[in-house]
C-alpha cells in the first residue's frame, strides 16, 4: 500500500498529479482487477490467438492461419451442433420468458398460500446443477416418473433420452424448469418497482385489466424484459451440464450443443486450436445477439 | 352465496391460482421424487403403483451410498473450495467496488467498462485458455487452481460499486478528519454499512461455487482433490442402476444451499433479483 502512495508522490513531482487519495483507489481495485485481467480478459484474447493454431497440449502450437475457421465452415458436426444450440436456446428462452412473466403476474395477485407456493416454485433454483441433471435423467428413464404420469393419459412408453426425436425436447423441459423460477424472481422485482398509483389511476379512468397490462405493466417492464431475454439466451447458450450427464450429446449428436462440442474437442480430443475457434464463434454469437437486443429496445 | 364466491374469486385471481399451483407442482415433483426414491430399496425404485412414502423407509441407503466412494473427502473439498472462493470474491469485490465508487484515479472508467464487459461472459467460452493459463502456472490438480481463477466475479464488483455509490461521501470525509486511515475507513465505516449486500453477495457466490462442475472436471485428475459434483457424476457413471443411492447422494449435496436458502431467504432471493440490475 505504502509503495503505491509513494510512487503516486513521485509522479506528482514529474508534473502528473493523482487526485487526492487516488493511490488508495488504485490499491483497493488492484486485487480484483489482477484476477479479472489474468483469468477473464487475457483468456478472451488468448482464445483468439490459439484459434489460429494447431495445438494438442503436448507439442508446441503451430500457426495455421484461418485453417480452423475454414474447417468449421464445412464441418457437418459443427453445423449439427450449431443447430442443436439454436434449437435448445429458442426452445428454452421463449417459453421461459412467457411462463416466468405469467407466473410473476400471478404471484402478484392475491393467491392463497402465496408464500408457501412461492417457496415451492423457487425450489428448482435452490437445487444445484448436477443433482438436477441426475434427478431428471432418472425421471426420463423409460420406466421413470414422466412415462408413468403420461401413461395415465394413455400415452405409450417413450424412450425420452435415447430417441432422436425426443431427446432435445426432454432437455428443453429441464432447461425451462430450472430457468423459470429464476426469471420469475427478476420479473417480480420489476413488477414491485411499478408504483401502485399508476394502476389505481388507470382503473379510475376505466382501463380494463388487459389495458392496464398493455399500457402500464409492459412498457414499465421493458428494461427488465430486455435483460431477461438476454440472460435467458446466454444461460441457455452456455448450458452443458444436462446434455453432458443426461444424453452425452446423443443420440446421433442431436443434443451435442456448442459448449459440449467445445469441451469434447478440447479436452477429449485435445484439439485446442479448433476448440478455441469454436469458442470465438460462440463468443461472437453472444456478443452480436446482446448488441442487437439492446439496440432493438433502445430505438 | 354464488355472488360472494364471485366477489372473492374474480377471474384473474382464479387464473393466477391455477397457474401458480400447476407450476409449483411441476417445480417440486422432481425434488419430492428424489427424496422418496432415496429411501427405497433398489428393487422398489420403479415399482408401481407409486408409493411416495415407502412403508419401510430404507435409511440405510444413505450410509451405503456415502460409503461407496471417497464422499467424505469430496464433501470436505467442496466445503473448503466454496468457502475460499466466497471469502476471496466477497473481499476483493467489496474492495474494488469501494475503490471504483469513492476514489478518483486515471483509468477508473476504463476499469469499470471492463467489469461491465465481462459480466455477461459465459465461462464456458474461455474454458480452453483458462485451462492453458492454469497449466502454465502449474496449478492443475491444486486447490489454488480450483479456487483462484473462480474467485473473481465481475457481477460482485458491479453490485458493490452500485451499493457503495449510495453511501454519502460526508461519512468518509468525517472519518478522515477524525484521523482514520483509509483501510480503517473501509473496514469500520463502509463494510458495516454494506452488511445486507455483503450477505447477498456471499450467498450468491457460495451457491455458484458449490455448483462448479466444468472447471474442476477439466483441471483435476487426482481423486483426493475432487469436489462433490464430480463425485456425483462419477457415481452416476459407475452405478447406472443404483438409483436409490444416486438420489441419496444428490439429496445430501443439496443440503448446504438449501440450508442457506431457508436461513437467509431474503438475501438469497435478493441476490437473484439484483442480477436484474445488470445492463
Write structural notes for this entry:
The complex is a heterodimer of chains A (299) and B (279). By secondary structure, chain A is mainly α. Chain A folds into 2 domains: 2-50, no CATH class; 75-298, MetI-like fold (Orthogonal Bundle). Chain A has helices spanning 2-13, 22-50, 67-74, 76-107, 114-126, 129-139, 145-151, 167-192, 196-204, 209-220, 222-237, 241-247, 258-267, 272-298; strands spanning 53-54, 62-63. In chain A, strands 1-2 form a two-stranded antiparallel ribbon. In chain A, helix 4 packs parallel to helix 8 (167-192), helix 11 packs antiparallel against helix 14 (272-298) and helix 13 packs antiparallel against helix 14. The longest helix of chain A is centred in the N-terminal third of the chain and has 32 residues, at 76-107. Residues 1-13 of chain A have low confidence and may be disordered. Chain B has 15 helices and no strands. Chain B has 2 domains: 2-62; 66-275, MetI-like (MetI-like fold), CATH 1.10.3720. Chain B has helices at residues 2-8, 11-38, 60-68, 71-102, 108-119, 127-136, 143-147, 154-165, 169-177, 182-193, 195-210, 214-219, 228-238, 243-263, 265-275. The interface between A and B is large, with 101 and 91 residues.
The SSE order of chain B reads: HHHHHHHHHHHHHHH
Q: Let me know the largest β-sheet of chain B.
A: none
Average of pLDDT of chain A: 87
Number of domains of chain A: 2
The pLDDT mean of chain B sits at: 88
Uncertain runs of chain A: 1-13
Give the termini distance of chain A in whole angstroms. 46 Å
Beta-strand fraction estimate of chain A: under 5%
Using the coordinates shown, work out and report the CATH topology of the largest domain in chain B.
MetI-like fold
Biggest β-sheet of chain A: count, sense, barrel? 2 strands, antiparallel
Poorly predicted segments of chain B: none
The number of domains of chain B? 2
The structure class of chain A reads mainly alpha
Work out the helix count of chain B.
Answer: 15
In terms of quaternary structure, the protein is heterodimer
Rg of chain A, please?
A: 25 Å
